[in-house]
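[step 3/7] fold_predict: job queued, chain A
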Amino acid sequence: MHPHHDISNAVCLRWSALSDCGKVRKNNEDSFLGVQFDAREVRLLGKLGEASLDSADMAFAVSDGVGGAMAGEFASRITVEKITRLMPRAFKQAAAGISSGRPDVLAELFTQIHRAITHLGESYEECRGMGATLSLCWFTPGRMVFAHVGDSRIYYLPASGGMKQITEDDTFVGWLRRNGRLSEYEARNHPARNRLQKALGGGNQFVDPQVGAVAFEKGDTFVLCTDGVVDGLFDHAIAECIRTPGTPDPAQRLVRAAVEQSGRDNTTAVVVEVL
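[step 4/7] structure written:
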């Protein structure tokens, strides 16, 4: 068989996503998003699925609204609209070999969302101070580029074992933790743990997302989650939840376990497995 007929080399992604209100909150300000896109169009993905990266890229995101019931809803709607506009253009540039463009496109995407949320906050009384976290992964064959603002998280679980949080929490407590001044346990119980230093909108003047990339291979897994998951589960428990096979799907396992343990906040997870 000719190598270019060999389908087994195609990289496939399997994803699952779930968002839960938790036990305390009345409304869900969290949202998640999955899209598949090429140079021409963007297709919204459902909560569960499997697709090849052969002809189209994929992006997944989680967002946690800050400051008012409408925040999460608006932020996610704006995010979808901006992604739909920007991603095909980015795909086209990457295909043309202008691949340094990926992190730049994501930074531009975040700036546009930030401006749109800020504009809403200034235009409508009920939207004043409204903001949102956003963590986004863009998958192309062999490489995942990410951008992040806030205290939602992206974890990387290599096939070889272990787990690494690749985003930095934009909180003072996150800074203390990174500088070795707090343990994971202390950070999780710190009274100021939810105080954001950066968000999209939310009265911040500039948004400067953390942007990075990870080379991945078959068997690797990525987890995107809002702080509701972290509130319920320590890192080792998140890893265990993902690595212990079982039904239902990994995102459901994760969200259910977190809500059972805590449930004080909206709880959202997207799990992306490289097949």
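[step 5/7] annotate
The chain has one domain: 11-274.
Residues 30 and 64 are 4 Å apart (CA to CA).
exit 0
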